[in-house]
Amino acid sequence: GFSLFRGRAVENTLRLPYGLLRDVFALLFAIHESDTSELAREKLVAGVVGMMPHDTHATEKAHFIGHLLGLDFSSSAFLRGILEDARQIHDRALHYLGQFLHAAAASGPVVVLLEDLHWADVASLDALVDLLPHVSELPMLVVAVARPTLFERYPQWGTAYAAHQRVELSLLSEDASRQLVSEILKRAESVPVALRDMVVRQAEGNPFYLEELIKVLISDRVILTDSTRWSINVSRLDAIRVPPTLTGVLQAHLDSLPSEERVVLQQASVVGRVFWDEAVRALQTGDTMAAHVDDDLAAILRALEARELIFERAHAGSQEMLALVGGKEYAFKHALFRAVTYETVLKRERSLYHARAAAWLEAHSGARVGEVAGLIGEHAERAGEAREAALWYGRAGKQALEAYAPETAIAFFRRALEIAVDQPDLGADSIPWYAGLAKVLWMRARYPEAIQTYSAMCARAEAMADCDAQARAWNGLAGVHERRGDYRAMFESTQHAEALALRAGDVGSEALATAYFGQGLALYRLGDAQGALALGEQLLALSDSLGDNAAYMRALSLKMLGAAYDMLGRFEEATQCQEQALTLARALGDRRNEGAMLNNLGESARLRGDPVAVERLLAALDVAHEIGDRDGEIARLSNLGGARLLQEDYVTAEADLRRVLEMVGNGNWFGLSETYRFLAEACLGQGKLEEALSAARRALDLAREIGYQELLGGGWRVLGACAARLEQEGQRESGASVPDPRSCFAASLGIFIEIGAEAERARTLREWGRYEIIQGDPQKGVSFWEEARAIFETHQMPCELARTAQFT
Questions:
Q1: 804: CB partners within 8 A, 6+ apart
Q2: Fewer CB within 10 A of the terminal residue: the chain, N end or C end?
Q3: Distance between CA atoms of 89 and 70, rounded to whole angstroms?
Q4: What pTM, to 2 d.p., does this model score?
């Protein structure tokens, strides 16, 4: 009566991005390690489409989900144009995963069983945290089994959900321990009280310890299992020295094995908790391409399985994601036994075994080798092959970055760079590791660390006389400054990047194009629309020489041009640029930029005062919902709130804007100043004057912090409007003075004149004119109104003209 989704994490996959989630889908759709990459993709798509029969976009969603899980859909028409945008792929894949679970639950309850969660990779754990709130209303039970070590890594994991219940398994009571002993020894005619008490006392309620202790007694022939009926040799009981710890018991059990079985276990322990017979064979012979396992090894593995020390994994899941040909997969019954066994391997043999394990993994993973790059790196490092380890860790970091598994990428890149310090010949190889690490830190808003890493990248590139790499480092620094709202530092960084890119001699380089875009964006945010326009034209001319990135950069240049034209009030030209950028985004399959351009078209309409902005922004918001673009949703909802002001729908506008503030929470988003400005206007329209004034002051403070001139001008204007209304109503804010409206309007007007934002200048003149007429100076007020009206006519803004006429 329910669907069962199962997945198990193992120690080997602790740093394999989305390894646990991929295991769930491998079990669900029978994707085997022996499947080719093509067959694995076919099974994934068929399975997802089969469970989403009413979704016309199910194939597209399957491609995103599969790519996130590491099945490499890079050649898919749905992803090909956005492969550099790992964040978009990640966000859309998780959003589609949520929709997949909704579809699965539509036909009945779903049970998700996740085992050994303490070994789960960070990316899977984070994905579950993101997914669970969106499926909380479904008939779904998620059972996650883990050791307490999970909560050492994530103390609060799972506790954010009201339906969460944590069940802790306590130690067995004495009665329960005796019952377990009786169950294990049920084939014995009688169990001496002394033996039962000794086992129960020694195990102290640990069922695994109890079970292993009985196995030691069997090995030492205290318990005889030669016949169908077991017996107890009581005479040997007093002579037994029972190890005082579980580790000691496991060590004693290992020591009691025949030497050939012990050696095979030691070799298997080097491979990992999960291992393969072919891998053990390779460790024995050094022949990484051995295509068979000899009879002796097969017999030894069967004997170890009979002793319940290892077990064959009947379903070759996806924990290592290897396209193995033949061979059997095994696992140690318990991770602690594997750890104890590994510690018995002589150090001089460990390095040899690890080197062979690395070579075997590389030889047998084929086109999917990137998926186990981190594991190969660990084997290489333990083998003492530092250079090779760094290269594999760097590759693993790149794989994690492309899968948008940030914490995993950070760990791999950092380890690669730590090793590279003592490897001078890795200078050129380390450049992309610095870039990858800095990019991930930037994406995670760890800005000081990102700045430090980009600076280190620049120093390394300078020592190598690599101007292009230096330019890329400066562009990276510019991106960090942009996120922090320091647009002057951003502009200076892009100037360094431009000079270095030109010095590198490639006038058609991506580094130069990125520098132009960064400079233009910085100038736009600083209020220099003409400067942004010039750089947008330069970038547009350069984009055609950028090869595969030509369309993407062309779209960015058109986006910049549209924003600059909007600021200058040249709305027709802005709309043309934005529509061209929209067409390019759709051709690339770039839904995030498609939504961004729909948003910009809506913003153009809002800036020229056209209420059609609401319709366009709702379309942009739909795209954000469709692809799970939370950042886009925040921006579009804020703009939608501003557009509703044009329709005088102040109540709905306020609801939208307060939802934005709730979504941002304690976070930092550069558009908050505008959100507060819109909120002030919405409150003002409802006569909520104190709330309006508070919001206006917050808008101005935020604009000052980031130095965004257009927002600063808008902040002064709305503060002046609030002060004017309070003055008109004869009200005063308790405990503080109301600012002078004329001073606010003058500050706003000065900024808009300086940056050439004509439409915004006209709005400030109209607001100031309204104030002067109410204050009894109609001549001054009408002169402001006439000036505003002339600007609206010049820039063909009929809706604003109508509002101005209505005002008079």
A1: 766, 785, 788, 789, 792
A2: N
A3: 12
A4: 0.80
